[in-house]
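The authors assume throughout that readers already know how a fold can be written as discrete tokens. In essence, backbone conformation is discretised, so a fold becomes a row of integers matching the chain in length. A single example would do more here than another paragraph of explanation. For illustration, here is how one protein appears when written out as sequence plus structure tokens:

…
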Amino acid sequence: MINFSKFQTAAVCCALSYCMPVFADDSASSTALGIGELSANSSAHSVILNLSQPLSGGSGVGYKYEIWRASQPGVAPQGKPYAETSTFPYADNYVVPGATYYYKVQGFDSSGHSVNAEPQGLEGVSSSLPLPLAVATPARTLLVVYIGDSITYGAYLDGAGTAEGATPPYWCDRFLSGMGGVQAVYGANIGRAGFTTKDWLPGWRGSCFADAETAAKRLAADHPEGQIVFPIMLGTNDSATQGPNGSPVSDEGYSSNLEATITRLLADFPGCKVVLNDAPYYSPNTHNGADYQEAGLARLTGYQRDTEQVVSYFGKSRRGRVYLGDTQAYAFFLSHYLTELKEESTNNGATNGAFYLHPNAAGAEDLGHLWAIGIERALDSPNRRRP
């Protein structure tokens, strides 16, 4: 039985919609147990899936469920599932407030047989939860200048190097545009492949910092009423064992580089806001001219603590200017790297096999969603700390 349920997540200041269906298939060699009706409850930042008749059996019998998720109806259970679980309720904590998702759930017995014969379609009842009361604020125009590396740049994606196409900045702009209190969003993607926090130091090399300032000045000239925001997501290349400039960058070096870059931005753009986002997970065998390894991942997670310290540092003297943004990307891509990151290999195809570093199209969309949530929370909650 295929049961379709549609829901809308509760949200503060968000007008976007996302949805969800459900799926169960069957095999003739398996007892047709069924999984019942799929239902969902949502809070501000999670969706709880439940089944009216979850699978159960005698001693030694184990069941599992595969879950698929999409942002459009008609998702097919092909390839790697979004998630797997052995129990319900199941909490999906990686959702955009106010969005609508489509889910499909398939149950399997201990032999790997699916449990329902004759898949059928049934459209569920549309439901919508009331939005929490939000403080009314004047509509803002956001001028967003993205500072980062190849992940921000959108390597391997349509529109790479721009805030268009399928890059994370494009998706972030799109979702920010739908949030309450936002009148318009204009973005500039200044991601630079291979760059570290050292490369982004003002005047260090090349023109990346100057390019970011030029983009901000251009946007401000075109939209003088706008609020300039600099989302910064760096650390992936800093964490490498060898290869990128300055790598491996120590905790102290990472913090001091960020502080120098942010200090200059705050001086040159007195009304700007800076939002620091965590870098996502990558597979430890990543080797694309740079070498990362487990030690690199340890450094990357250490930078999360350093980011908090940088925010705290500026909070003492520049209160309300530097914010902690997205903190969920690492955990999200750790859980979903097979479906959300591009499978890559070195040019000669001979080193360490396939690895996962850059978001694919689906991953870029989800990363942009996470950035938008982080920026919206940061600008509305100046004292926010890591959950």
